Amino acid sequence: MPRKLLPKQISTFIQTQTNIRLSIEAFISSPTPHPISTYRSLLQNLASHGELNQVDTVLSHMRQCHTDPSSHEPAYVASMRGYSRGARLQDAVDVFERMPLYDCEPSVVSYNVIMNALVDHGYFDQAHKVYMRMLDKGITADTCTHTVRIKAFCLTGRPHTAMRLLRNMAERGCAVSAVTYCTVVCGFYEVGFVSDARQVFAEMLNWGLFPDLVDFNKVLHVLCKKGDVSRLNEAVNLLENMHKSMTPDVTTYNTVINGLCKELRVSEAAKYLPKMFNSGCFPDSFTYNIIIDGYCKKGMVQDACELLKDAVFRGFVPDNVTYGSLINGLCEEGDFKRAVEFLNKSQANGFTPDIFMYNSLIKGLCRQGLVLQALEVLHAMPDSGCTPDIHTYNIVINGLCKMGNVTDAIVVLNDCLVQGSDPEDAYQLFLKLRKEERGFSPSLNTYNILINAYCCKLNLSMAEKVLSEMMQNGFSPDAYTYHVLIDGTCKTGTVEKAYQYLITMVDSGFVPTMVTFGRVINSLCVNGRREEAVSVIQTMVQKGWVPAVVSTILSTDKREIAAPKILVEELMKKGHITYHSYEVLFEGVRDIKVNRKRSGRLTCV
C-alpha cells in the first residue's frame, strides 16, 4: 500500500514542480484539506508559469475550505506578487482591496507587497497614499516598508531624501539591510552623485553589511548602463574588489563585459573570459555574443572568428545574433564571400537569417557598387522566410540611383509597396527619390500602388493627397485608381465621396465591377440614401452593365421594371449587396419612372 504524502511534502512538490498540470493534479487529488502553505505554493507556481487566470479559482477554493479568514493572508500575498510580476497590477490591487471584504485585514506584509508593486509600475503617488492609509490604521512600518519608500524616492530622482530616511530608520527601531543601502547607492549613481554613492557603499561595508549577488549586480547594472566612462571604471573596480567578499556569477561578469563592449573596450572585456573559467563561472551565449559583436564593431573580425572557434570548442552553439554580428563585420571589411558563407552556415544549422543579416549584406554589397548582387539577395529573401523591410528597399534603391539606374529603382519601389511595407515609409522614400534623383519619373502604376496602400490602411487623406499630386504631374486616374478609392471611402463610411468617385468613374468612361457597384450601393442604403442607390441601378441597366441573366430580358423589357428588379436580385444572390440593401432597392425600383425624375445625379451618358 503506497504511503500517503504529508501536506508539507505535497506543498514542496507543488512548489518545485516545473509541470504546472502535475501541480494542479497533486493539489486536486489530495484526500486531506490543504494548509495555507500549499495554497501559497500553488499560487506561486501558477504565477511563475504565467497561469494567472487560475488565481481567482484557487483563492475561492481556499475561502471555501478554510473557515479562518485571518489565516488567508499568505495566499493573498502570493497572488498579489504574482499579478504584479505578470504586469497585471490592477488585479493585484483588487486582491488587496477585497481582503477586508473576506474578513482578512491586511498586515504590514500585505501593505509592503502592494506598495512595492505600485512603485515598480511607476505609481508613486498611489504608493504613498497606501502608506498613509497603513499609518492611519495604526500599523507600524517595518524595514521592508522603509526600503520600498526609499526605492520610490530613488526612482523619482530624490536620493538625498532617501538617504535621510535611511538615517532615520535606526531611530524608528528598524534594522537597515544591505538591500536598503544598495537601493540608495543605485539612486545616487543614477543621478550622477558618484562621491555620495561611494560614501554610502563604504558606510554599508563598515557596518558589516555585505550585499548579496543580486543587489551587487543591480549596482553594477546602474554603473554600466549609461555608458559613462568614469562609472564604467567604477564598476570594473567594484568587480575586481568583489572577489574578497563573494564570488561573481555570470550575470556579474556579463554586466561589466557588456558595459566595456559598448565603449569598444573589447580587449579589456575579453580578458574576463579566462577569469570566469578560473573561478568556475562559465560564459553563456550572451557573454560570447557581446564580445564577438564588440570585436566586429571595432573592425577586429579575425579576433571575433578566433573567439568563435574557441567558444564552439567549449560547447557554445552560435545563434542568429552571432551570425548577424559576423556578417555585419565581414561586410564592413568588404569580405562578402565569407559573409555569404556565414549566411549559408546559419541556414545549414537550422537558423532562418533575420532582417539584420540581410540588410548588413545588402548594404555592404551596395557600398562596394555590387548592386546587381544586392538585388539578387533582395529577391532571394522571401524564399528564405525573411520579408524585406523599408530599410532593405531604401538601401537597394539608393544603390541603383547611384548607378544611374533610376528605372530599376522605380521597379523596386513598386515592389516595396506591393509587399505591404508601411505606406508612410514608402511615401517618404518616394519623395526622397523625387527630390534627389533628376531621372526619377514615377509611373501611374507607382501612384496607384501608393494610393492603394493608404486606402488599405484607411488613411484616405493621404490617399487623396497622392491622387492630387498624381494629377498635378499629368496622370489621370484609371479604373484601378477609382476602384481602390471607392473601396477605401466605403470602408471609412465617407459615402458621399464614394458616390462622387463612382459618378466620376462612369463619366470618365470606365466600367466599374459588380463588386464596386455593390459597395457603393450598400453604403448608400445604410446611410438612408435610397434615391441615389436606385439611380445606380438605373445607370447599370441603361448602360447594359449587368450580369448575363439580366441582359437577356433587356430587349423585351424596354428597360422599364423587370430588368432593375432582376438586377437587384442577382446582386444579392452573388453577395454584392446585403439583404437590407435588397429590401431598400426592391421598393425603390417599383416605379422606375418616378425614380428617374427624382434622381438627376447619375444619368445615362
TrEMBL record:
Chain segments annotated as transmembrane: none
SUPFAM superfamilies: HCP-like (SSF81901)
Residues spanning the signal sequence: none
Alphabetical UniProt keywords: Repeat, Transit peptide
Pfam families for the chain: PPR, PPR_1, PPR_2
GO function terms (MF aspect): mRNA binding
Record-linked NCBIfam families: PPR
Protein name (database record): Pentatricopeptide repeat-containing protein
Native organism: Rhynchospora breviuscula
